[in-house]
Task: inverse folding
């Protein structure tokens, strides 16, 4: 780990001013940043500790029924908030499917949005990685890549975004509140994370020094509370990133879909919103056939980036399964294996 200056600001403006200096990085729980620093993949010259900034650790319900979540709210506190899990159940399900209980007790929602790829070549200093060293190449292209991107990738980077939490947030039109050197602004979460193109080192739409202070879920998203699920397929039961995942939500009236939301995780460098597939479902009778059509459309542009063609069919099946579970209705109680395709309900179909 390199030597660095440690700064503990007393307010958001102080934090932003400190982070405007090149070579700075914000520190909250550090569940991602500290690991990167220990391994040498991140080498900030100034670490700005934001853990004691006032007002960023609150869950505030808005007059219109939406919710504003401070960036320093802990993942576990948000997941177990009774009103949030009732109003936005897929968000709670996604949070509880990520990492371990110990990490959820430490990690913050703002940090979750800003976590970086888990691609092995990004973490391996001996490997070429355009995200870590622009222009150095991408060893993942010819290396171990069975879990890499099938949507939105380029020859410069085939990494995927690791967050579970972000997938339902994107599906529900979450908005990120940001403070920076030039004041505050809002960014649709769907546009916060960037596809690699020819500049994979530009991972987000944040400007230098900008700090995420809150995430906001609109009141309109609460209309999906009765039929919303997050489904995640992983290589082991817990403490594993998604091979593929899906957040789905439906508004149903007399068996007809009036509105739909679909987002995928583990398939691209950002949570992938399938808007065309959503539009296809509107005014159709909810059925396996309709769900299969939507899944095919959601993955229509997918292509392997290496030894991962299987992820395309797997993602199609996960979308169908997630839509089917959403149609059945949000569980009254959180499943024993949150977000798992392996239901704990006796007699449930485990075939994805």
Result:
């Amino acid at each position: 780990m390199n030597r660095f200056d440690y700064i503990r600001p007393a307010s958001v403006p102080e934090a932003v001013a400190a982070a405007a200096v090149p070579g700075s990085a914000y520190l909250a729980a550090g569940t991602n940043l500290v690991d990167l620093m220990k391994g040498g993949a991140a080498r900030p010259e100034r670490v700005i500790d934001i853990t004691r900034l006032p007002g960023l650790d609150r869950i505030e319900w808005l007059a219109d029924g939406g919710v504003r979540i401070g960036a320093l709210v802990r993942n576990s506190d948000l997941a177990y908030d009774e009103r949030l899990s009732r109003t936005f159940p897929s968000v709670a399900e996604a949070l509880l499917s990520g990492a371990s209980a110990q990490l959820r007790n430490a990690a913050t929602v703002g940090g979750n949005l800003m976590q970086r790829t888990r691609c092995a070549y990004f973490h391996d200093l001996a490997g070429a990685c355009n995200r870590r060293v622009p222009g150095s190449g991408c060893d993942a292209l010819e290396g171990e890549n069975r879990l890499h991107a099938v949507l939105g990738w380029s020859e410069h980077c085939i990494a995927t975004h690791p967050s579970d939490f972000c997938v339902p947030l994107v599906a529900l039109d979450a908005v990120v509140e940001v403070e920076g050197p030039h004041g505050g602004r809002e960014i649709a979460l769907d546009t916060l994370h960037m596809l690699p193109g020819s500049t994979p080192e530009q991972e987000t739409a944040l400007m230098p020094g900008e700090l995420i202070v809150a995430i906001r879920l609109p009141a309109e998203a609460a209309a999906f509370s009765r039929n919303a699920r997050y489904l995640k397929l992983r290589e082991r039961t817990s403490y594993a990133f998604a091979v593929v995942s899906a957040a789905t939500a439906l508004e149903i009236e007399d068996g007809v879909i009036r509105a739909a939301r679909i987002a995928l995780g583990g398939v691209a460098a950002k949570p992938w919103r399938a808007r065309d597939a959503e539009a296809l479902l509107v005014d159709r009778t909810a059925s396996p056939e309709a769900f299969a059509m939507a899944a095919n459309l959601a993955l229509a542009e997918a292509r392997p980036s290496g030894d991962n063609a299987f992820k395309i069919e797997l993602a199609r099946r996960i979308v169908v399964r997630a839509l089917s579970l959403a149609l059945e209705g949000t569980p009254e109680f959180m499943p024993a294996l949150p977000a798992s395709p392996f239901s704990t309900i006796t007699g449930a179909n485990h075939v994805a």
